[in-house]
Amino acid sequence: MWRLLLLTLCLTGLAPLAQAQTLSWQACQGVAGPSGPVLSDCRPVQGVVDPQGRELWIRATIKAPDDSRARAVYVSGAASSEVWLNSRQLGSNGRPAQTAQDEVPGRYQAIFPVRETAWRPGANDLVLRLSSFHGGLRFDGPMTALVVRPFPYPQRTALLAITFVAAGTLLAAAFGFGVIHAMRRTGSSLVLAAMAGVAALQAIVESLRALFNYPYPLHAWRMSAIWGLAAAFAVLLVSYVAARYWPKASRLMIGVALIVISATALAPGFDVKTVLALMTGVILASVPAAIGVRDRRPGARPTLAYLAFFLALAIGFPQWLADLSFFLLAAGLVLPLLMVEVVRLGRDDRGREAALTEAVSLPDRLTVASARGVELAPLAEILAVVGADDYVELRMVGGRSLLHAARLEGLQSQLPPGFLRIHRSVIANLAHVQRLERDGTSWRLHFSEGPPLPVSRSRQPALREALEISSIARSV
């Protein structure tokens, strides 16, 4: 855990190096002339640059670089854009316009390299034309970057690599818990599989900007998905902790979590929504964890300590919570639980093997191993055994059935002579057979109860002979 904290502190210390250089912008009335933009009535931009639902011309005065490094104008945001430097057009991203019909949506991120000959000594005039009619949702800060930086700008490959490692780890954990749920049908393993899968999906969606330069109208869907996945993880976290450490109040805690976490959708800004959803889930999950500590439930103390660490890190470094910390902390939570669950399964399997060994000496019963444990099924109550891949279904008297972790071929040798293989996937108990009946071109065997079962043509002679012998034996 201390390594995780050290890594987060180091990454946070590097954050100022990656912050964008801001420019002083003016909003103007403008038109595109034959020799460049023609601007008038320029006024300082109050607040954020916001082209949503309109065409917006902005300008800034920048100094020529004092070194020979190449430069580019970086534009990131939910808008189409065109860029000019000293009346020379650097390029366009989509096609900004005065109406939604005329606008061609651009990419969310655009880079406009600046040729060395475009600069002039001293002050330089940078002009952008923006419009955003297809954003879908209204953002409080639609433009995330309007800066001039060295070109090419270093990518945060270390952050991206860590996010992908966390995502891969979480997907593996989701698969592991899914397998455990298939074997044991435990609710906790299903919730943990969902938690790991949701966190992995959020890591992938969070990284889309670095992997895929998508059209800006998709940004609203991406941000909504990030908040939705964060909210789902928070609700699942509360559900898991409450069911484990305060089960009598688990429904109440889940209901409260659904209401309170859903309310974070009303917060301004998607980053705030996401961080609030995660922090709310952690705070709510801390309540049943604290109850578990009070009641001395196993595992409650480390769970509460981990949640407190998560919360302290979120409060201390909120800017890194959605980008990195959440995925690492989610992986750090579910992986130890997966290891504990695997160890517990190993112990359960050893106990089941001991029970099977003890029960093997009972000749009138079949020892059934299933996800629920070990059960003794009386042979006289078995109507038929139906194969299903690596399992068999025991159809019992009274309409119930049992799943047995065995193959039909291996089970056939354990059953007494009163059981006969009538099909490649069926073994019948002749004591419960009523009649053999033709059904078109095929044959079916009827039992004292339950549906009939098919009989293969190659096994009919042996079945008829066995039924005759059984009939003679009953008449005697």
Based on the model shown, name its key terms.
476 residues, OB fold (Dihydrolipoamide Acetyltransferase, E2P), transmembrane helix, 45% helix, kinase activity, 6-stranded antiparallel beta sheet, transmembrane, alpha+beta, 3 domains, Jelly Rolls, 5-stranded antiparallel beta sheet
Q: List how many beta strands DSSP finds.
A: 19
Spell the H/E element sequence: HEEEEEEEEEHHHHHHHHEEEEEHEEEEEH
Task: Name the average pLDDT.
Answer: 82
Number of domains: 3
Give the strand line-up of the largest sheet. Answer: 2-1-3-8-5-6
Beta-strand percentage?
Answer: 25-35%
Structural class by helix and strand composition? alpha+beta
Low-confidence stretches: 1-21, 357-361
- How many helical elements? 11
Distance between the termini: 77 Å
Basic shape:
elongated
Largest sheet: 6 strands, antiparallel
Radius of gyration using CA atoms only: 34 Å
Residues in helices, as a percent range: 40-55%
Concise summary:
The chain has 476 residues and is α+β, with helices and mostly antiparallel strands. It has helices at 2-18, 157-184, 187-206, 208-211, 219-245, 250-263, 270-294, 300-316, 318-359, 408-412, 460-475; strands at residues 26-33, 36-44, 55-63, 71-77, 80-85, 88-93, 109-114, 123-131, 143-150, 365-370, 373-378, 382-388, 391-396, 401-404, 419-423, 426-429, 433-439, 442-447, 453-455. The protein is elongated.
